[in-house]
């Protein structure tokens, strides 16, 4: 299959180009599209065959449910079981008013017409309204909610540019809408509203503190609560976001973590391996010249780190390194999402 790459303006997308992409979606095809978080792989979320194709294109395990992307809160309510409790609906309404469009996905009881291929057989559905003009225009033109997992091969770093999508899915999907690099860089926060207090299934751009300010209370999953038995979020059990080469994550922040990283890098180099490091701007000048370096911005600016994280992993892969050594970040606010992705991407610690 020839994958068509179409450049669109990120703020005022040409409606005729979007309409072309929407026709592909309505015909059951796959179109990668930009959101404010990462690029998504869009399929008609109410068409089980299109959804099936999406799982195959990504190589995604069938038991990992998909997020449905909508263009308005009304589009989301149509996907919710009308018998869902009033208290839950009120919480959802409060969160929607505060954070949509934006990087917050809500897990709610699913209406009957939501295909169980989307929810991986669960009676709940994950919904979100993205904050990106191209994504919203595509959903509106297609006239259906878009199933939209990240547009990467399952298990790989999420794509933050159209080029990353092409690298993973070129030849497997009909079209990519290229609107330049995405802003946030890490995936949406996933909040399960079917529990009290609501459970953060995946940390993201909307932090626990921001959520608690609206609904009063949220909690992190208990250790072992995710990815086991009748798991509330099956997707969380898989290794994710990983580059093709091993990524080793230092256990401690600099300076101790940096000393450990330098020591391990020298050891790897002596063994004949090409070393790549994923570090903040502050640490870059201290890295030996023979190593490949990808920086993710200032250590005190987590928004920069999140935006650069996945791209930096792919950059090091392309530089042909044999191993990636990375440093951790402070685990507060957006730092929790950053560390969640880094831990899942890593194959070991330093
Ligand atoms: P991705 O499509 O890669 O952005 O991942 C979507 C995330 O949302 C995965 O972690 C899924 O497990 C989670 N998710 C989607 N639908 C549900 C659901 N009904 N219940 C719990 N988690 C869900
Ligand atoms: Mg993903």
What does this protein structure show overall?
The protein has 350 residues and is an alpha/beta fold. It folds into 2 domains: 4-215, DHBP synthase (Alpha-Beta Complex), CATH 3.90.870.10; 247-349, 3-Layer(aba) Sandwich (Rossmann fold). Helix content is 33%, strand content 17%. Strands 1-8-2-3-7-4-6-5-9-10 form a 10-stranded mixed beta sheet, with helices on both faces. The termini are far apart. Mean pLDDT is 95; it is low at 228-232. Bound molecules: adenosine monophosphate and magnesium ion.
Counted by DSSP, the helix tally is 11
CATH architectural category of the largest domain:
Alpha-Beta Complex
Measured on Cα atoms, how large is the radius of gyration? 20 Å
How helical, in percent, are the residues?
25-40%
The gross shape turns out to be: globular
Q: Characterize the main sheet.
A: 10 strands, mixed
Let me know the number of strands: 15
Secondary-structure class: alpha/beta
| Order of strands, widest sheet | 1-8-2-3-7-4-6-5-9-10
Look at the structure and give the mean pLDDT.
95
Low-pLDDT sequence parts: 228-232
CATH domain fold name of the largest domain: DHBP synthase
CATH H-level homologous superfamily name of the largest domain: DHBP synthase
How many structural domains in the coordinates?
Answer: 2
Beta content: 15-25%
């Amino acid at each position: 299959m020839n994958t068509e790459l179409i450049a669109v303006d990120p703020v005022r997308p040409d409606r005729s180009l979007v309409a072309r992409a929407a026709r592909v979606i309505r015909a059951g095809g796959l179109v990668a599209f930009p959101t404010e978080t990462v690029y998504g792989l869009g399929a008609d979320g109410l068409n089980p065959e299109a959804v099936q194709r999406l799982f195959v294109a990504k190589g995604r395990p069938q038991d990992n449910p998909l997020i449905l992307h909508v263009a308005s809160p009304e589009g989301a309510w149509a996907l919710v079981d009308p018998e869902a409790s009033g208290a839950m609906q009120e919480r959802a309404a409060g969160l929607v008013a505060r954070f949509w469009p934006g990087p917050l996905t809500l897990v709610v009881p699913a209406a009957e017409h939501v295909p169980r291929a989307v929810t991986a057989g669960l009676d709940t559905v994950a919904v979100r309204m993205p904050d990106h003009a191209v994504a919203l225009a595509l959903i509106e033109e297609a006239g259906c909610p878009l199933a939209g997992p990240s547009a990467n091969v399952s298990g790989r770093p999420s794509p933050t540019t159209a080029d990353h999508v092409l690298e993973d899915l070129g030849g497997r999907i009909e079209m990519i809408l290229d609107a330049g690099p995405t802003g946030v860089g890490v995936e949406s926060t996933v909040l399960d509203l079917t529990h009290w207090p609501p459970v953060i299934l995946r940390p993201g751009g909307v932090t626990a503190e921001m959520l608690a300010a609206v609904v009063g209370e949220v909690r992190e999953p208990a250790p072992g609560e995710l990815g086991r038995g009748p798991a509330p979020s099956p997707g969380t059990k898989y290794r994710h976001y990983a580059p093709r080469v091993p990524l080793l994550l230092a256990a401690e922040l600099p300076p101790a973590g940096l000393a450990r990283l330098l020591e391990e890098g020298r050891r790897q180099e002596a063994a004949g391996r090409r070393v790549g490091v994923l570090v903040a701007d502050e640490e870059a000048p201290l890295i030996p010249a023979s190593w490949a370096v990808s920086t993710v911005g200032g250590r005190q600016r987590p928004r920069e780190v999140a935006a650069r994280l996945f791209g930096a992993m792919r950059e090091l892969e392309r530089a042909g390194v044999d191993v990636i050594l990375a440093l951790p970040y402070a685990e507060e606010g957006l730092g929790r999402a950053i560390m969640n992705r880094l831990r899942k991407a890593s194959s070991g610690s330093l």
